[in-house]
Structure prediction request, 480 residues.
Amino acid sequence: MTGQALMSNGSGIVIFGGTGDLAYRKLFPALYNLHVLEELPTDYQIIGIGRRDYSRWDYLTIVKEWLQKYSRVKYLEERFTDFSERIHYYKMDFDKAEQYPDLLAYFDEIKLQGEVIFYYAVAPQYFLPITKNLSIRNCRLRECKVIVEKPFGDDLTSAHALSKELKQSFLPGHVYYIDHYLGKEMILNIMTIRFFNSIFKGVWNKDFIESVQINAFETVGVESRGGYYDESGALRDMMQNHLFQILSIVAMEEPTAMESEEIKAAQLKVFQDLKPIVPTEIGKHLVLGQYAGYRQEDKVAPDSQTETYAAMKLLIDNERWQGVPFYIRTGKKLFSRESEVIIQFKQTAKEAEGNILIIKIQPDEGVYLKFNIKKPGKENGVQVVKMDFCQSCILENRINTPEAYERLLKACMNSDQSLFSKWDQIELCWNFIDQAIDSYQKYSGALYPYQAGTAGPKEADHLLLHDQHYWIEAEMFLEG
Ligand SMILES: NC(=O)c1ccc[n+]([C@@H]2O[C@H](COP(=O)([O-])OP(=O)(O)OC[C@H]3O[C@@H](n4cnc5c(N)ncnc54)[C@H](OP(=O)(O)O)[C@@H]3O)[C@@H](O)[C@H]2O)c1
Prediction:
């Protein structure tokens, strides 16, 4: 085992998976930005853990290359020099319980004695063993927090087992379930748009809204993550967490205060009000697909039944949303990379179209509104026009807007849970998804093929045709 000590006191973050994609592409750039903006305590230390036989110098060289590629704030050699003094590399195997006492001794050696955040940037099968092995550090008696990456379990039972272990090992409120969508600028903006504009606040209900659509499309396939993805699939990888979280923010009642606990309670109520899907009717609520060529991807089973596309129709059984369908879809190898929320308002007259509001989450961030005006000139016809605000097109906004992981790491350091999922939410979401998967396997089982570069399987259209709705392709509006 290697690890060079740098003498300093205090707190820090320990990244399990310090040589992984997430650490290099997201966590180090986020920490570097916080360092440059002087938002890290002066003696804050960063310990990356991996299996590779790196010296500290090797590690810093790689971290530097990634920062040059991915840092939001301009990379500066002199700032990297002082940032690099915070960084350590430690080699170990998470599976080997006998290596943990040495790891803990190493923390003492580098005087990591204040508050420590353990970041699980590792494959989910390591969450339990790491937690069990860390318990010898007595985290319930010390200042430790833990950030757990998604996926949090692969069903309700495994999520329960993990949650139980975490509760035994860490103090209440010290476990941070990350859903990086919650740190995104436009997700935070949904509440502002909803509650700080009377033109939207008053009409955000069944009387004015015809349907809601939430999309998260990717153009890439599974790339190097075939092994993980083939065990997971679109429902578990995207829907149970990111899309359900967005749904809850779009649909929640106005929180009694804009504080973490009140917002979480309002979101939870949405999950409690989700109308259970009658198992025999699952075909009218869920469509799963798989892109052509998926089974030939590296580390994917040649007869894989894993879905790379999922579209779901949900209903929320409460006063505000009675009868309004929420259509949510996600998939890989689709025609476009984009995530957005689309609010389709009711048509008020035969000759006019219903208004459409699009909250663009990524890659472009902004707000689009389609509305009706009189056709210019002598005629009395109606013309559809748009207002399109692109937040990310403004250079200053791009430079000054923190990345999701930057926000989330800072929030955890400040003990702010508002940008994280909560266990009771995770539990309800798993319960819903588990039941949907179970019903689908019993009463449908169809896995519709689709070609790369399309909008997914045609069969997904049928979810909406029952209600005489259609998928609103945001791209069509945004370019037009
Ligand atoms: N990548 C993303 O953009 C992203 C986004 C959202 C969530 N996540 C989640 O973040 C987690 C990590 O994803 P990733 O993409 O970073 O994975 P990855 O690139 O495969 O990295 C895995 C990391 O775990 C380490 N590791 C694996 N087995 C180990 C063992 N037995 N002992 C010690 N170290 C071990 C690897 O170290 P060595 O390479 O040195 O062996 C590497 O640092 C996953 O839960 C994933 O779902 C990732």
